[in-house]
Amino acid sequence: MNPRSFNDVTVRIVRPRDARVLQNELLVNRAWLSPWEATLPGGATSSDVRGALRRQLQLYREGLTYPFVIEYAGEVVGQLTVWGVQRGSLRSATIGYWVAERVAGRGVTPTAVALVTDMMFSEVGLHRIEICMRPENAASIRVARKLGFRYEGYRPRYIHIDGDWRDHLAFALTREDVTGSMTARLAGGAEIADDTRQPTANGGPAQLPWNP
Questions:
Q1: What is the mean pLDDT of residues 176-190?
Q2: What is the pLDDT of residues 25-58, one digit of tens each?
Q3: Cα 24 vs. chain centroid, distance in angstroms?
Q4: Taking a C-beta distance cutoff of 8 angstroms, is the pair 150, 169 a contact?
Q5: Distance CA 186, CA 184 (A)
Q6: Reported pTM
């Protein structure tokens, strides 16, 4: 799968040699990311980034996961993973992501989500993309709204995050919701859809990509 770029943002499939820079970014941004970090019941959380990437690349070869790194101006600043890929009559998947604090507010995350969503619809042949987010994260619900993801419901105690089972909001987009491409709409400054049923609470990314 070839990389895609828009403005200064590039998404590409992760490489084993990315492990060192990703590990460093996670350490530097620990306080920034920890409220949204996926954990395991019982307290065990793996910090083996190299092993996690190996597992993700194996799932990628099996067509079950699409693990990307996010680059901004040529520098790795985060990761976005399409996981839980379902084929057949469903053709659906979920997006999870994180970015470094220093690039927050620069449009990196919505651009990366737009690029990957276009790839999933046009290259992989998926029909539906979902983002599940905690109600407390204001930044990520703005991403979903900016890109026109439709609010689909509230999921109580859905994923184990930051040491406990956390509530999530579910947003989704189908191919029929997009005329042209996500990046074209992003370039035009227009939302892809408008759903007045969206909640007033804010939400954000539910998990680090390698531990959904």
A1: 85
A2: 999 999 999 998 888 888 666 678 999 999 999 9
A3: 20
A4: no
A5: 5
A6: 0.88
Homologous superfamily of the 4-205 domain (CATH): Gcn5-related N-acetyltransferase (GNAT) (3.40.630.30)
- The answer to whether residues 47 and 72 touch, using CB atoms and an 8 Å cutoff, is no
Sketch the domain layout of the chain as residue ranges.
4-205
Long-range contacts, stretch 104-111, CB < 8 angstroms, 24+ apart: 104/139, 106/72, 107/7, 107/9, 108/9, 108/70, 108/72, 108/77, 108/78, 109/70, 109/78, 109/139, 109/140, 109/143, 110/143, 110/146, 110/147, 110/186, 111/6, 111/7, 111/9, 111/183, 111/186
Side chain identity at residue 123, one-letter code: E
The residues facing 98 across adjacent strands are: 79
Q: For all residues of the chain together, what is the average pLDDT?
A: 88
